[in-house]
Specification:
Belongs to the peptidase T1B family. Its main location: cytoplasm. Component of the proteasome complex. The protein is of the alpha+beta class. The protein has a single domain, classed as Aminohydrolase, N-terminal nucleophile (Ntn) domain (Glutamine Phosphoribosylpyrophosphate, subunit 1, domain 1), CATH 3.60.20. Helices cover 31% and strands 33% of the residues. The protein has 4 helices and 12 strands, in the order ββββββααββββααββ. The protein has a 5-stranded antiparallel beta sheet with strand order 10-1-2-11-12, covered by helices on one side. A 5-stranded antiparallel beta sheet has the order 5-6-7-8-9, covered by helices on one side. Strand 3 and strand 4 form a beta hairpin. The longest helix is centred in the N-terminal third of the chain and has 22 residues. The protein is globular and about 45 Å long.
């Protein structure tokens, strides 16, 4: 078993019309044994920028703490919030710094950049970025997430339709992966508000 599959995870970010959604499952496991069913994988950097961290849970928490520290330094120096594109470069640089002993994490970054244009991106454990205009996925359920998102994605969805699409894609995908699941955690971010919802899924 790969170290990336040790805790299990499912992450997805999708763009809509001037909005984006980012969602994750809630299971924390040790291989096939479930340890917690309310684990947080999505972290808020600021009101218009979120990061999801799949992979080894301990590395994800360590990496998040480093990112919060670096973002606070940026805020103090620049006196403004960091842009999603700049933040993606920062995450990539932090991961590449440790390429000989990497954090076993696959980040998914989603944010609203200038003009409320949604930005999503994912990268591997050493910071090689993959940009997309529709959706990005990560985690042990990524294969079935790709299929569900390909089937359900439509361009320029409003926030409610986007929430419905992301939720259905997440719930149907984790049913096909025994290392992730136990409900979902969804954020839908528009220029004016952040909606956070918890999904109930199959509890097995």
């Amino acid at each position: 078993m790969s170290i990336f599959e040790y805790n299990g995870s499912a992450l997805i970010a999708m763009v809509g019309k001037n909005c984006f959604a980012i969602a994750s499952d809630r299971r924390l496991g040790v291989q096939l044994q479930t340890v917690a069913t309310d684990f947080q994988r999505i972290y808020k950097i600021h009101d218009k920028l979120f990061i999801g961290l799949s992979g080894l849970a301990t590395d994800a928490q360590t990496l998040y703490q480093r990112l919060v520290f670096r973002h606070k330094l940026y805020q103090l120096r620049e006196e403004r919030d960091i842009k999603p594109e700049t933040f993606a470069n920062l995450v990539s640089a932090i991961l590449y710094e440790k390429r000989f002993g990497p954090y076993f994490c696959q980040p998914v970054i989603a944010g609203l950049s200038d003009g409320d244009k949604p930005f999503i991106c994912t990268m591997d454990s050493i910071g090689a970025k993959e940009l997309a205009k529709d959706f990005v996925v990560a985690g042990t359920a990524s294969e079935s997430l790709y299929g569900a998102c390909e089937a359900m994605f439509k361009p320029d969805m409003e926030s409610e339709e986007l929430f419905e699409t992301v939720s259905q894609a997440l719930l149907s995908s984790v049913d096909r992966d025994c290392l992730s699941g136990w409900g979902g955690h969804v954020y839908v971010v528009t220029p004016t508000e952040v909606k956070e919802r918890i999904l109930k899924g199959r509890m097995d």
